[in-house]
Write a sequence for this structure.
């Protein structure tokens, strides 16, 4: 696998985590449009779980079977 191809997939996997974090953060905003520290941690946890389920686990399964 070429290095450019590997770099592309690594970038895409990272992108999934950032997009998920932004989505969870927007869902957890309070009435004033602010987010507290604990809610930020929850958004980060949700992003990590989402990235793990959608990106890391499938690619690791493929990588280990090859």
């Amino acid at each position: 696998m070429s290095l450019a191809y590997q770099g592309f997939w690594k970038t895409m996997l990272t992108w999934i985590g950032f997009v998920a974090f932004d989505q969870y953060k927007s869902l957890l905003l309070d009435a004033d449009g602010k987010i507290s520290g604990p809610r930020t941690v929850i958004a980060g946890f949700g992003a990590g779980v989402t990235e793990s389920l959608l990106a890391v686990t499938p690619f690791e399964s493929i990588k280990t079977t090859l």
